[in-house]
## 1
Amino acid sequence: MHPFSYTRAADTREALDAGRRGGRYIAGGTTLVDLMRETVERPETIVDISGLPLREVRATERGGLRIGALVTMAETAAHPKVRALYPVVSESLELSASAQLRNMATIGGNIMQRTRCTYFRDVTADCNKRQPGSGCAALKGHNRTHAILGTSDACVATHPSDVAVAFAALEATVHLLGPDGERRIAFADFLLRPGSTPHREQALRQGELITAVEIPALPRPLKSGYLKVRDRQSYEFALTSTAVALHVRGGVIREAKAAAGGVGTVPWKLPAVERHLVGERPSAALWAAAAEKAAEGARPLQHNRFKPELLKRTVERQLRVVGGAK
Ligand code: SF4
């Protein structure tokens, strides 16, 4: 590990000052410390923000739910309002990482976590994300777990977060605070596709701090859930996953929200699936037809040609679970 200086921010102003000078924020530390040990990340200064007052989950005036950036994964998953209103969020968190990690890792840190591409974490391998311009070892290497959607010639790594898939499906908003004040950004615009600059992963400005993630109000009743397909049943990242939410009234689907994980360079919203569902009556045939749209535009790699079909089956199964098998 390279030498670094550590400072603990007493308040938000102190944190922002340190961030503006190039300090890296740290809260639970469950990603950054690993990457520093592996010398993938070498920050000069880390700024501990774990003491900031960003630990509240509360209903918003707009009828949604605001989850403070420092609420842990475990606290979020167990929160009565999250469980009652957005079970898809609780389920996505409970299927993530280990109990120990969920007790430490925060919501803000979770959506900031970096890819699990093994070449990214191997400092001897070529990786455009770690070292811009060096190449991408995964393109011709072992790429079974890599992305099939949103990829570029520069990078094919997946975003590893599960709860980010739920946030993408529900069209959440990220609240930010920076030297120039507060701003909000749609979750769909917060995480960046790699394009030719895979080292740029979020639409954050220098020194900006995530303060909360807000989930909008959605029509009730709303049924939702998360399905994760992986090589083993615990402490593993998704091969495919899906977050689905459906509002059915009078026997007709009035609103549908869907996104996929494990397949995209960012959590992958599924608008074609959503469009296929809205205005229709739930049925097994509808679930199958909608799921056919899930892998549109997919570009499989040598070792993950199974992913488009697995994705479609994942979405179909979860639509059946959430919407009912008829
Ligand atoms: Fe690096 Fe992305 Fe290629 Fe992985 S897929 S080696 S993260 S550039």
## 2
Amino acid sequence: MKNKRIYLDHASSRPVLKEVFNFAKPYLMKKYGNPSSLYNLGLESQKALEEAREKIRFFINAENSKNIIFTDNATESNNIAIRGTAIRNLNDGKEIISSSIEHMSVINPMKDLQKNGWTYNQIPVDNFGFINYDKLNELLSKKTIVTSIMYANNEIGTIQPIKKISEIVHDKGKYLHVDASAAIGYLPVDVQRDDIDLLTFSSNDIYGPRGAGILYIKPGVKLQSIMPGGGQERGIKSGTENIFSIAGMGEASKIIKNEIKSESERLTIIRNKLIKEISKIDRAFLTGHPKKRLPGHVSFIFNNIEGESILLNMDMYNIQIATGSACSHKTLEPSHVLLEIGLKHEEAHGSMVMTLGKSNNIDQIPLIVKAVNDTVERLRKLSPL
Ligand code: PMP
């Protein structure tokens, strides 16, 4: 008989919370009005939209709900933040910066701008994944329009000191964009405390329905629409709003905000136990920082075996894990994040990433540890290396 599922891949997908689904359900079949329509059915949707905006404002401590733009996902938010500010502020400079371990939805829009004449610099990271502050300082100039540094890394869990980075960026450059996709829900994100200009995440990162994301835009930030149309979302993201997903995301943010502290403490205990046990395996190395890492994040590399095989073997125990970047596994290239923290190609191939969430508990630890031990032992026996 197959074990009960132990799902350990929350960074790539989370189930929608039942309370969230029940809250948002009416917006699919009953309250289906277009928020731009003036009759009651439309106004009802308009109200739901603004209520969700206020919930998200409160969630990240934005100045005003007007500073929240709804998008379809974090990828779209990242694109709008980067292209929108780069293009709008063209006359002030054509320099853009990101860390070298950003998600591809940050790196690729920046590379695109580079092809079109912008100067794009990447900040290297150390072995734990912390950005090199001296290099950042050196590369920043009055012409740097947008600098994008993620709150925490989805593959190695390392949390960047965003407040410190914000101070460095604002000393010379213009805007700091922060991709909070990996951190949101685990850490109390506060855009005013950390002086962030632009911030992004997806609804599913907080157990909301897919198909919604947010872009926070600090008052005064100049940004051009890259999706002109009917003028929805302050003209920055035109197109009829996905009320079901947006209302769900708003409700999810309300629930998650109340739980962040207790849930993070609970997950940290499970995480630490898993790290301790898995570290005992021969030639197993933790990636990312041992302490300054996301509460639910466990990431290792195992020498001489392939991450894809680890993933498939673990699935036989009905345990779902990730290897390298969930979003770029189709390329079979080793993760750029692991190469950037100094691993060799062959080392980076043996990566295993576990991201914990609500369905995980301390009782699952022995089963998980046994499955990892058995998997590594079996694969090493088969390995020609
Ligand atoms: N940024 C980070 C750090 C991510 O991990 C992901 C993927 N979960 C994204 C951006 C893109 O998110 P989405 O696929 O929801 O657009």
## 3
Amino acid sequence: MSLIMVIEDEESIGILLKYNLEKEGYKVEIIDNGLKAVSEVERLKPSVIILDWMLPEISGVEICKLIRSKPDIKSIPIIMLTAKSQEEDKIKGLESGADDYVTKPFSIPELMARVKTNLRRAPIFEEKERFIIFKDISIDLVEKKVKRGENYIHLSPTEFRLLKMLAKEPGKVFSREVLLKSVWGENIFVESRTVDVHIRRLRSSLNKFGADYIRTVRAGGYSIDDKEDLENND
Ligand code: CA
């Protein structure tokens, strides 16, 4: 699932874009303050940015230039959104580093098509899927953060890797040996009991905010799924 960031101070346009982008299956983040925009882009690393030209604090052109000056985010495609339709403004927008340019009032299908086109050029950190979603659990592979509903869940790096592995293939049972090899690595010697300890910690962190989706398969291993008829004792 790709993240689209909308930098726009007008609330009604933000809501309209969020609604339509989410309908297309994207994750959407609205930033309504131009001064926060660049640091938010650095933090969240979206796949595509929709940037309004007219912002009260700082212009879209300035934001665009700032993004283009930062090596880790400079290749994120930017679609500039503006009421300005004059040719020289358009040139100024493109010169500042925007990849695309849409004039307000815009048509939703056209903007969606532009998003799709620009997504193909999204940088490498977005070529793979960024989020793994299982039910209300959302795993951000770039930021390495886990959210359950609206709550952030703090996990150790090991617990994070365990959850990622289980959530990638819901319903599949992973043996302790397989989990050990993939999560801890081939050459590290740890007992299979270690897996149980970390699964227990993972469970207790995750389950603070909802039902237990981690399933213990006796003598088999672990999986994540929402089958309610199965025993679920650690
Ligand atoms: Ca505006």
